[in-house]
Write a structure and sequence with these properties.
The structure holds 2 protein chains of 2 kinds.
Chain A: E1 4-11, H1 20-31, H2 36-56, E2 59-66, E3 70-77, H3 85-88, H4 98-101, H5 110-116, E4 120-126, E5 130-138
Antiparallel strand pairs in A: 1-2, 2-3, 3-5, 4-5
Helix pairs in contact in A: 1-2, 2-5
Chain B: H1 3-10, E1 13-16, E2 25-28, H2 32-38, E3 43-47, H3 53-61, E4 65-68, H4 76-85, E5 89-91, H5 96-107
Parallel strand pairs in B: 2-3, 3-4, 4-5
Antiparallel strand pairs in B: 1-5
Classes of the chains: A alpha+beta, B alpha/beta.
Chain lengths: 140, 109
């Protein structure tokens, strides 16, 4: 099946550009006439992933593949990895620093939000190697 | 009510202006994860956060406007990004609760 493939470099620790990839994907989906509810779900899930890469992993790559009925998103970083994925998935659990919290992040809702707003989510992570999060969101 | 009408009626400071939008609801919050998952489209978003991520979140949630409460002013990065993206940022001296009451009274949301 043909798809539209969008690739972004997510700049680590640069909050000025954080969210650019999600905004771009959101704009593209809107232009394609995807329903506002689906666009919103994609924007939330992808923004959380993008922010995680900025906060925890010195940036990375975000790839979005848009199909007529769904979107596949891969967020790949070479950061510290997640030692305990189950713990990281718990709402309210966060390893973000005070400094990051003062910016409005670190509520421990990033991964839970990604799960809540996607139809499929898979995390591959190895400590010291990096993390890749795969998301699929079906359009309504 | 339109954002420009609300700005005038409330007497709130206007730091940046944008596309004319109707205010249809309100949301108060500072944790960005809560906001992006819970704030509704076309809301008036009340916060005390003043960094550049506020503009990114405002774009993602499609809010009608941001109101910075408690006399908070946008920092330079937020100001620039909001200006470029055409996001309304208003400012109120009152705390978030009192500001929400003002939004409620004037906009009826």
């Amino acid at each position: 099946m043909q798809c539209i493939r969008l690739e972004y470099d997510v700049d680590g620790e640069n909050f000025a550009s954080a969210g650019n990839a999600s905004e771009s994907v959101k704009r593209t989906l809107k232009q394609m006439g995807v329903s506002p509810v689906s666009v919103r779900r994609v924007a939330i899930a992808m923004y959380e992933g993008e922010i995680n890469m900025v906060i925890h992993a010195h940036g990375g790559k975000a790839v979005a593949e848009i199909y007529p009925d769904h979107i596949d998103i891969a967020l790949k970083d070479t950061g510290p990895g997640i030692a305990d994925i189950d713990l990281a998935m718990k709402a309210g659990y966060s390893t973000a620093s005070e400094n990051i919290r003062s910016l409005g992040f670190g509520a421990g809702m990033g991964l839970p939000n990604m799960k809540k707003y996607s139809d499929e989510m898979r995390i591959e992570s190895a400590v010291g190697v990096g993390t890749t999060v795969f998301l699929r969101i079906d359009f309504e | 009510m339109k954002v420009s009408e609300f700005a005038k009626a409330s007497g709130f400071a206007v730091f940046t202006s944008g596309e004319e939008r109707e205010i249809e609801s309100g949301y108060c919050g500072d944790f960005l994860s809560n906001i992006i998952s819970r704030a509704t489209d076309a809301c008036c978003w009340l916060t005390v956060m003043n960094n550049v991520n506020v503009a990114a979140v405002a774009t993602l949630i499609d809010c009608a406007c941001i109101v910075l409460c408690e006399g908070v002013e946008p920092d330079a990065q937020l100001f620039e990004r909001a200006k470029t993206a055409g996001i309304w940022i208003l400012g109120a001296n009152a705390n978030v609760y009192e500001t929400a009451k003002t939004v409620c009274r004037i906009c009826g949301v």
